[in-house]
Each structure stands twice: as C-alpha cells, then as structure tokens.
Amino acid sequence: MELRHLVSFLALAEELHFGRAAGRLHLTQPSLSAQLQKLERSLGVQLVVRNSHEVRLTAAGREFEGQARAIVAQLDRAAAVTKLAAAGHSGSLSVGYNLPASKHVLPDVLAHLAREHPHITVSLWEKRTGPQLAALADGTLDLALVYGHPSTAAFRYRPLLRRIPLVAVVGRTHRWAGRTGVRFAELAEQRCVLFARDQCPAMYDSIFRAAADNRIGLDVAQTADDPGATAHMVSVRPFVGFASLPRARSMNMGAPDSGAVAVKLLDPVPTLDLFAVWRAEEHNPAVELFLDAITATRVDAAPSLQPRAHERVDDLALEHQIQQ
After folding, report:
1. What CATH number is given to the structural domain containing 209?
2. pLDDT at 162 over 50
3. Which CATH number goes with the domain that contains 45?
4. How far apart (Å, rounded) are the C-alpha atoms in residues 72 and 258?
5. Radius of gyration of the chain measured on its C-alpha atoms
6. What are phi and psi of 101, to 5 degrees?
7. Sign (positive/negative) of CA torsion 254, 127, 281, 90?
8. Which of 48, 68, 85 is where one domain is finished?
9. Tens digits of residue pLDDT in 95-147
10. 196: containing domain
11. Residue 190 in 3-state DSSP?
C-alpha cells in the first residue's frame, strides 16, 4: 500500500467517476484503475463497484474511506509541522537554568517566544551548572543557562549577566552573623562547607581564586552539593558556607525565621558571570530563536538586586546586564 494509492482512492470516493477523478489527479483512467486494483489486492477486499451505469463504494470501501482520510490528513500535518520546525517556527526546546536565569532571563525571553513563536514548546530543567553541562553534552538539553562556560570547542556560548557576587553563609550564632562584611582573608581562620567542583566549576574556582589572591588555604570541613544543606549545616555548626547573592535572597537568609545569615565578602568580592551555552554542532532551529529572544528582550539598565532590609549584605548590588 502506497500513499498515492490512498490519494487516488479518496479522489474516486469523492467524485464517484473515473474520468473526473483521473483528471483531478492528472492521471489517465487506466492508471487510476491500476492503482485502485493494487490497493484492493493489498487489502484483500473490494472497495469500489463499477458498471456501465455507476461507480459506488462497497461497505468495506465506505469504512476504508474514513480510515484513509485520517491517514492522509495525519501525514499532511506531519509534513507541515516538519517544515515549520525546519524553519524554526515550531518544534521543542529543552532549556536548563539556575536561579539568576529564572529571575532575570527566562521571564522576558519565554514571554517573547510565546508571543512570536507560539508553536515552540519549551521544557525547563533547574539544575546546577555541572549537571546542566553534562545533560547538554549527552543531548538531554538543547541549551544551558549556567555560571561560567566550558573551554572545549564542542560548545558555544554568550554572556548574559555579569558580576553576580558570592556571599558567606553562617549560622545566627556565628561571630560573623552581626557583621556587615568580612575580608576574604579571614576565612583562613574558619572551617568551611563546600561542594564538589563538578557541581559548579565556575563558582568553585572563583572561591579558590579569591583564596589564592589572599595567599590562604581553605579548611573544608564538610561537603554539601545542595545550598539548602549548606544552610542547615552552618545553622548548627560554626562553619562558613558560600552562596550567590540571588540564592541567599531566595532562601531568605537573615530573615527572622531563617537559621542562616548571608555576610558580604570583601577583598576581593568573588563574582560569577552567567552564560547561555549550546552545542557547537547544534541543528535545532529553536536554539537560535531562543538566542534571538535574548537579544530582543535586552535592557540597557537591568534593575539591580539591592539587598532587603533584613540582609547583612546591605551595600552589595548585582552589577549585571543582558549582553548582545
């Protein structure tokens, strides 16, 4: 059974006249008859009764007409969707993101895509940088919004947000809890809670780069890959953890009901940059549309993340802008 046999049968079912159906299909009547015979042989049933007075469908033919029409319509839809996807006007996109991206990139970009390309389906996946890049490499994600960018030629990237500050995270009874800021060198006297580097290489390296600038080592007492776990650990032990300022805010650190407090780090202030990263050999047109949406929603003066009244990092602001 071939698609052209179904198309020929449907034309005949509508016209109930071999001459008109053949003309509509730009076929000769013998060719149309031959196609009908091949279709009937493949099905093992008679679909059409023809005599000198009329052409009519058999009971099997009437039943098959509905099925054939559905098959052809589905194939037409599949072809149309495929063409739209190839042009970037339809299809699906899997995007990984972190907290700053969810606040300062995704809202406007997703709104733009929904307005300009409503047939594109976007799936979102919130993870730390390391898991995102692994998922990007194995094809689970089409695009990642992460801290830092890979140095391998397998990926391409563009900057989004700049200089997102890191803060120290301590418990309410820690001697730093009442301070507005601490010099990074003071970490030489503290025991730290840190995460595995593969969870977020850029953040890990920023912390250790600041330590190297101060010629100190960090005493890592415990590891915790989840920011929530870090907050719990420092709330009951005299340890120091680390978080980005947006993450500290999202967890309400310093609020009356929080067991953890965010404290500004100085000399230097460790910072992170946020990037969009995608595969260099990416062929999904929706990725380019997502990047276009970032450009279309760019603002020259993005609102700063001024700390709230209960936060100890009262003079830290996020210097950021969405880049071209």
Report:
1. 3.40.190.290
2. yes
3. 1.10.10.10
4. 61
5. 31
6. -65, -40
7. negative
8. 85
9. 999 999 999 999 999 999 999 888 889 999 999 999 999 999 999 999 999 99
10. 89-301
11. coil
Interatomic CA distance for residues 273 and 267, integer angstroms? 18
Give the dihedral sign, CA 181/187/191/197: positive
Backbone angles phi, psi at 184, to 5 degrees: -60, -35
Q: Is residue 102 a contact partner of residue 126, using CB atoms and an 8 Å limit? A: yes
Report the predicted TM-score, pTM, of the whole model to 2 decimal places: 0.67
Q: How many CB atoms lie within 10 A of CB 201?
A: 19
Predicted confidence (pLDDT) at residue 321 exceeds the cutoff of 60: no
Q: How far apart are the first and last CA of the chain?
A: 53
CA pseudo-torsion sign 270, 274, 280, 282: positive
* HSE (side-chain half, CA atoms, 13 Å) at 58: 11
Burial of 72 (0-12, 13-18, 19+ CB in 10 A): middle
Under 8 Å between Cβ of 123 and 257: no
Q: Both 178 and 285 in a single domain? A: yes
319 domain residue, yes or no: no
Contact 165, 244 (CB under 8 A): yes
CB atoms within 10 A of CB 189: 9
CA distance 120 to 114: 8
Considering the domain architecture, whether residues 183 and 35 belong to the same structural domain is answered as no
SS (H, E, C) 217-247: CCEEEEECCCHHHHHHHHHHCCEEEEEEHHH
DSSP string across 61-85:
HHHHHHHHHHHHHHHHHHHHHHHHH
Residue 324 included in any domain: no
- The number of C-alpha atoms within 13 Å of 317 and in the hemisphere containing its C-beta is 8
CA dihedral 173, 175, 178, 182 (to 10 degrees): -140
DSSP alpha helix (H) spans, the chain: 3-15, 18-25, 29-43, 59-86, 99-104, 106-116, 129-137, 201-213, 227-236, 245-250, 285-296
Q: What is the pLDDT of residue 87?
A: 65
